[in-house]
């Protein structure tokens, strides 16, 4: 499948630093992709093939481990939403997602918190790694660091495309940035007639990056409410705009809804999404856009069931509590107000 046959735009991010490339043409291309679709393929990213195949290889080995080994790092063990989630134990839009996964965040110790500290600081804490597959840690952290590098490069290109200095957002993405990755397996659809691999949603950080295998199933919502396939393009990542960037641009950039349809019975799909979240204490303020872009800003679409809160930590916590009710019940039942 070549990019010309796909419904979403394709951006070669290496053009951003290439002295021989036409910078204005490149910025116009990435601006259009992020404004119109909010979803695009990225090539020219420089992530070694060894790492992209390595992460799928450890993923296959992890999900093939006996259930007891996977459950040894189940996310209900800690309050930080890290570690393993069994198939059918995560929810989107109130409905069960048919996928199993490991959540990985930055390697940090839990904080000693007092009663006046914001509750979302309790999200910070260590990862859980499988004793039976020690190489997963190294590969996952290396992959995550490359995914963050690519996302930050795309964010710098978007900042420039929006008439801002390239480093406009850099301060939110220091070593305390709330980034995270998921290593996901979508089993073939269950025999109960459902096919929700993951239900329709927007991502709530600044940007998300996705490495998907060749199976397909990711779909992206069109402005008219229809859905298009984000067909796999070998060697590419898919990048999409998150809600924080939609807020910062007053809707000039768009956080597009997407979902995953389960593969057919007997087929597994693997994917590795990465979410570029800022520091938990980031407050997202509107960018002053050039007049022509401001005129094309659509405003922010508030969803009554999923209100946008301004401090990133509050949004992130709300998202985690909704999608992982078992962790919420065990570790967060004292929390009645997140923001
Ligand atoms: O696995 C995929 O293709 C997409 C996953 C996704 O959208 C998410 O986890 O937020
Ligand atoms: Fe997503």
UniProtKB/TrEMBL annotation:
Residues 177-278 form the Fe2OG dioxygenase domain. Gene3D superfamilies: B-lactam Antibiotic, Isopenicillin N Synthase, Chain (2.60.120.330). It comes from the Bacteria. This is 2-oxobutyrate oxidase. Pfam families: 2OG-FeII_Oxy, DIOX_N. The lineage of its organism: Bacteria, Bacillati, Actinomycetota, Actinomycetes, Pseudonocardiales. PROSITE patterns: FE2OG_OXY (PS51471). Belongs to the iron/ascorbate-dependent oxidoreductase family. Keywords: Antibiotic biosynthesis, Iron, Metal-binding, Oxidoreductase. Transmembrane segments: none annotated. Pathway: Antibiotic biosynthesis. GO terms for biological process: antibiotic biosynthetic process. The keyword Metal-binding applies. InterPro entries: DIOX_N (IPR026992), IPNS-like_FE2OG_OXY (IPR044861), IPNS-like_sf (IPR027443), Oxoglu/Fe-dep_dioxygenase_dom (IPR005123). One of its GO terms (molecular function) is oxidoreductase activity.
């Amino acid at each position: 499948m070549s990019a010309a046959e796909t419904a979403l735009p394709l951006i070669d991010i290496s053009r951003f630093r290439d002295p021989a490339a036409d910078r204005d043409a490149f910025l116009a291309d990435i601006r259009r992709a992020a404004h119109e679709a909010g979803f695009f393929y990225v090539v020219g990213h420089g992530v070694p093939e060894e790492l992209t195949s390595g992460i799928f290889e450890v993923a296959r080995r992890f999900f093939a481990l006996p259930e007891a080994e996977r459950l040894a790092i189940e996310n209900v063990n800690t309050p930080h939403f890290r570690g393993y989630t069994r198939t059918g134990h995560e929810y989107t839009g109130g409905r069960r997602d048919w996928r199993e996964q490991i959540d990985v965040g930055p390697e940090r110790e839990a904080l000693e918190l007092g009663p006046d500290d914001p509750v979302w600081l309790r999200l910070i804490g260590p990862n859980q790694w499988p004793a039976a597959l020690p190489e997963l840690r190294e590969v996952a952290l290396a992959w995550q660091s490359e995914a963050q590098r690519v996302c930050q490069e795309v964010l710098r290109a978007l900042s420039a495309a929006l008439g801002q200095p390239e480093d406009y957002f850099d301060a939110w993405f220091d070593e305390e940035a709330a980034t995270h990755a998921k290593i996901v397996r979508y089993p073939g659809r269950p025999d109960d007639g459902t096919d929700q691999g993951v239900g329709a949603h927007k991502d709530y950080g600044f940007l998300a990056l996705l490495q998907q295998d060749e199976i397909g199933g990711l779909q992206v919502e069109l402005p008219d409410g229809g859905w298009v396939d984000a067909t796999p393009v070998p060697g590419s990542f898919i990048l999409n705009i998150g809600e924080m960037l939609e807020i910062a641009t007053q809707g000039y950039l768009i956080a597009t809804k997407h979902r995953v349809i389960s593969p057919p019975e007997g087929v597994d799909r693997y994917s590795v999404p990465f979410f570029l979240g800022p520091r938990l204490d980031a407050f997202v303020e509107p960018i002053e856009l050039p007049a022509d872009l401001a005129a094309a800003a659509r405003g922010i679409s508030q969803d009554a069931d999923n209100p946008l809160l301004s401090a990133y930590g509050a949004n992130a916590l709300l998202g985690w509590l909704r999608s992982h009710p078992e962790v919420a019940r065990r570790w967060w039942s004292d929390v009645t107000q997140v923001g």
